[in-house]
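Let us walk through a complete example step by step. Step one is to write down the protein sequence. Step two is to encode the small molecule, nicotinamide-adenine-dinucleotide, as a SMILES string so that its atoms and bonds are unambiguous. Step three, shown after the inputs, is the structure prediction itself.
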Amino acid sequence: MRLPFELDYKPHLPSKTDYGIAFVGTGGIVQYAHIPAYRKVGFHIVGCYDLKRETAEAVAREHDIPRVYNSVNELLADEAVEIVDIAVLPWAQKAVVEQVAGARKHMLCQKPLSQDFAEAVEIVAMADRAGVKQAINHQMRWDAGIRASKHLIEQGVIGQATDVQIQVSVSTPWHMWPWLASVSGLEVMFHSIHYLDAIRYLFGDPEWVTSRHARYALQGDVRGETKTITVLDYTNGLQALVSVNHYNQWAEPFATFRFIGTEGAIDGTIGLMYNYPSGRPDTIEITSKQFGSGVKITPTLDEMWIPDAFVGTMASLMEAIQTDSEPKDNSTRDNLNTLRVVQAAYRSAAENRSVRPSEIG
Ligand SMILES: NC(=O)c1ccc[n+]([C@@H]2O[C@H](COP(=O)([O-])OP(=O)(O)OC[C@H]3O[C@@H](n4cnc5c(N)ncnc54)[C@H](O)[C@@H]3O)[C@@H](O)[C@H]2O)c1
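Step three: the predicted structure of the complex.
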């Protein structure tokens, strides 16, 4: 059986997409995700800058980027640059945002906005004071399985959500992010943050956060937590579980989401996590009172988290610039509430108690 409506799960492009984009930071994520995404839909990349000039030059050569700048200031002085795509390490982000806001240019920031909540608030305020648009690259909101679920939930397919689960047990290629080895808050801040943000996107803000964090016996020099279980409680009785293990080196890997409601359920897999960063397409299986008992609908999702979802975050920023409004699904202001959930998870784990996100900030 097919769905009785067209499933809307691909990023929507605004009518104007030729804004000049320049990168600050041209590391891994820009090379294997941002550039392929932007090239796929014809976004206009005008230049790049990296602290390591040889990295920026190699990336420009490989991807046909016309200009390599010698400094952030030189990049900002280029009138062709209308959007700055910031992809530096989180502790360097605020200083770059300050410069970009000072030059009154729009910007896409990386997640996490900051590891420090007060600093994240300041980053948002900088864009406000400058009167520029600032969006966050929380692109799981545009991942096909999550976007499709959003549409299905809006169509009433599952009724009122009662049980939400995202469970991931994989062997993560940590060598891709050597800088993560030294951070004290690792799993929730850098990985589960995607799931917590996606759950907020689909189901809104939780009332309580309860989180437990552990390290893997053989994780060596990696300092932070790598196995976490987080429970979100909502006032309407919805409970959400996010359970993640990055050191599954023996069992079959899995990365699943399950959204069960009073009238139906969506069961899916997060393709990217089966073989990061190549991944595979997400899958979803839908059951609903609307379709009759025993009927399972399994639409094909033919887009990938990397690179396709990365189109969504940038397209949303462009739309906001064009319509002079807040980025609809990825404003940094809204992202502060995702960071509240993240910080509540750390406080919960540290203090062995449930924490309200409203305690943060
Ligand atoms: N949205 C996502 O799904 C996602 C995925 C991976 C990484 N990230 C985020 O992207 C950011 C970059 O991660 P990565 O994996 O590409 O790291 P990376 O180490 O591969 O690249 C970072 C690059 O930034 C450069 N850099 C550092 N400070 C700079 C500065 N002040 N000015 C200019 N260049 C600077 C470095 O020289 C390096 O080339 C991190 O904040 C990370 O959390 C997001």
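Step four is interpretation. The two ends are 49 Å apart (CA to CA).
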